Give the backbone structure.
Amino acid sequence: MTKEKFLYVTYIRSTQEKVWDALINPAVTQLYWNHHNVSDWKPGSVWNHQRCDGSGKIDITGKVLETSPPHRLVISWADPDDTSRFSRVTFEIEPTNQGVKLTVTHDELEAGSSMLRGISRGWPMVLSSLKTLLETGNAIDLSKF
């Protein structure tokens, strides 16, 4: 089966440490993603993308594959109802003269899958909301999209 890759690059007026914290801190992910990213963020640990609506529902789950704070985080990404089919997300945070370059590579995606369609729409919104939050203090309200 053919595998696809989604790549997104953005530049953020922030520090590597603040971007890193925004990726792993549930209190911050709630602000721009409407989900808590929950884990101890150690290689081999489970991570969950959990709704903030009080239901406790987990929409995405996976494992922490690699972590190098505040530069690189690699996680697997799967529907909690079918963890046998998973993809991989790599976050790379590089310093620039005015902030950081955040590169998100979501690969090992099944061609034509609903997951590929969903993340192709979702990542640009979520990462724009992250950028806006870190630069202005206010995230984009994703429920309006």
